[in-house]
Design goal:
alpha+beta, four-stranded antiparallel β-sheet, 56% helix
Length: 564
């Protein structure tokens, strides 16, 4: 049995299936996350090594070049770039698309271990991490309060920072500004020269004494006790009483050659929030977490923190979720109003409220069904997927219009409701199927694209293809079902106000058809002119191609100004 016949013979069955699809799509839509663009994970790994107090040239010679040589032969490497700065070396390794980054990270770790003995002993152990576009901060906050700069920094690190980092989807909360506590040992050069003591001896003494060391196990009766020596400094006097050396049999303490003070780290940046000294915090989300969901959780936590600690004020300075929500809302509104305008245009051309209502019902069904696909495939509501829906809205109605017009023609010829619905649909079923598949074939190859563009536009291809396939099924089932029960063919009352509107619209369309016919006739009489003009326009378009710019994404205006 064909689909139109099945839909008309089993109306309850088809109606229940459509309602299930609508319910499933509605639930999926309520659970879809919102983001600006599809999640993009670049096949890139970065090896970072810190070597405090060393200049860029030495960093390059001692760290960067040996690491580059070791990593360049890793399988699947496409390109390597490095950055050597004061105290830090970064080697970024770009892999071919499709490379398993977990296996690549293990391979890099093995090659780094091979050259670890060639690196300076004082340098930190190289760390490997994945480069993730989502690792950039999604929200910046300003913290100000009625306390000193050092106390504010300690308070934020002890009481505030962990509350953000424990939120779902938050990877890290960074703190900048303020004053960080630091113990300074100010050496007296004159006394040290007189006692012939080097700064390295002082550093070695501090490292030697500031330790907690395990002392093993001691069995006492029936008990086994774990012993340890507590040697970490707890007061400034303990640091001052540390022995550095012996001169003439007498110990020399730090208090005799230096001054110990409880101070702060050197100030390298200043943060001011609305004219007041304060701190800046940045929240980074975990890979795969939704930006808007994480941002909403952070903003809600900010409100609770301000209530729990009235002595400080936490303010969201920059929130990427605001721009994302505005961008997605603009595309969503464009798709919605595009659907409304499509229905209005259909009403003007069809001049029948019942047929327009049938098509107006089919548009949201195809769109809502697509939300189910997006949810189960892990897509998000972003500008690409919404753009695909907006693009597909204009195409979704094509199949329904063709089927509905053919059914209406059969009704005008005197056929019954069910017979006209079945015959009218079957006559054009092959044509609309071929037309839909032709359009799907245009978008489907995008699914197999690789690279950044492939990752970005795969969701577009899936959304458009699935919505078109849904519209085909709707046109072959729901349209004949509704047509067999809703469409009525009768002459309108000439005295009714709707007749005047329909008659006026019909005259306008008749004049449009006559103008189009005259244009076709003129083109056929002046074939050389038409062909020449077409070739000239085409050649002119080819000439303009070199002047068109190329970029991955269009420029966006986030509504803010930054001065550096």
């Amino acid at each position: 049995m064909n689909l139109p016949g099945l839909a008309i013979r089993r109306p309850v069955f088809v109606t229940v299936l459509v309602l299930i699809v609508v319910l499933l799509g509605a639930i999926s839509f309520s659970r879809l996350s919102v983001d600006l663009m599809p999640d993009i994970n670049l096949p890139t790994l970065t090896v970072r090594t810190n070597y405090t107090g060393v200049g860029p040239q030495e960093i390059e010679e001692l760290l960067t070049i040996p690491l580059e040589r070791a990593l360049s032969s890793t399988p699947g490497v496409r390109e390597i770039s490095s950055n050597s700065s004061e105290g830090s070396s970064q080697v970024r390794v770009y892999f071919e698309w499709g490379t398993d980054l977990d296996s690549a990270a293990d391979e890099l770790r093995t090659r780094v271990d091979r050259v670890r003995g060639q690196l300076p002993e004082d340098a930190d152990t190289p760390t490997i991490f994945k480069f993730d576009v989502n690792a950039f901060p999604i929200l910046f906050m300003g913290v100000s309060g009625d306390m000193g700069a050092r106390d504010l920094r300690e308070f934020v690190e002890d009481q505030i920072q962990y509350r953000f980092e424990r939120l779902a989807g938050v990877a890290q909360a960074d703190v900048w500004g303020g004053l960080q506590r630091e113990i300074h040992v100010k050496l007296n050069r004159t006394k040290m020269n007189a006692l012939k003591i080097e700064p390295a001896q002082v550093s070695a003494a501090l490292r030697r004494e500031n330790l907690n060391e395990p002392a093993g196990q001691v069995i006492e009766g029936q008990f086994e006790v774990l012993m340890r020596t507590e040697g970490e400094y707890r007061t400034l006097s303990q640091i001052a009483d540390t022995m550095v050396a012996r001169r003439d049999g007498k110990p020399v303490y730090i208090r005799e050659i230096a001054e110990v003070e409880d101070s702060h780290q050197e100030v390298r940046n200043l943060v001011r929030i609305n004219g007041r000294a304060g701190l800046r915090m940045a929240v980074r989300k975990q890979s795969g977490a939704n930006t808007v969901d994480v941002s909403r959780a952070v903003v809600h936590e900010i409100e609770r923190i301000n209530q729990d600690f009235p002595q400080i004020q936490v303010t969201a300075i920059y929130d990427t979720a605001d721009f994302i929500e505005r961008s997605v809302a603009n595309v969503r509104d464009a798709a919605f109003w595009g659907s409304i305008l499509a229905v209005i245009v259909l009403l003007l051309f069809l001049r029948n409220a019942r047929t327009t209502l049938i098509i107006a019902i089919t548009i949201p069904i195809s769109v809502i069904a697509t939300f189910g696909l997006m949810y189960f495939y892990g897509f998000t509501l972003n500008t690409v997927t919404f753009g695909g829906l907006a693009l597909g809205v204009g195409i979704l109605v094509d199949n329904s219009i063709v089927v509905l017009e053919n059914i209406f023609r059969h009704r005008q010829e005197g056929q019954g409701r069910k017979a006209s619905a079945v015959d009218g649909t079957n006559e054009v079923a092959t044509a609309i199927t071929a037309s839909t598949l032709t359009t799907i074939v245009v978008f489907l190859p995008v699914v197999f694209m690789s690279g950044v563009s492939g990752v970005m536009f795969q969701q577009l291809a899936w959304v458009v293809s699935f919505s078109l396939f849904s519209s085909l099924l709707v046109a072959l089932t729901l349209i004949p079902l509704l047509s067999s029960r809703i469409i009525r063919v009768r002459e309108p009352d000439p005295n009714h106000w709707t007749h005047r509107i329909i008659h006026g619209t019909g005259e306008m369309l008749s004049r449009l058809e006559q103008s189009y016919a005259r244009g076709i006739q003129w083109s056929l009489r002046h074939r050389l002119v038409v062909v020449t003009l077409t070739v000239a326009v085409f050649a002119g378009c080819l000439f303009l191609i070199p002047f068109i710019g190329f970029e991955l994404q269009p420029e966006t205006d986030e509504g803010e100004v930054r001065v550096s």
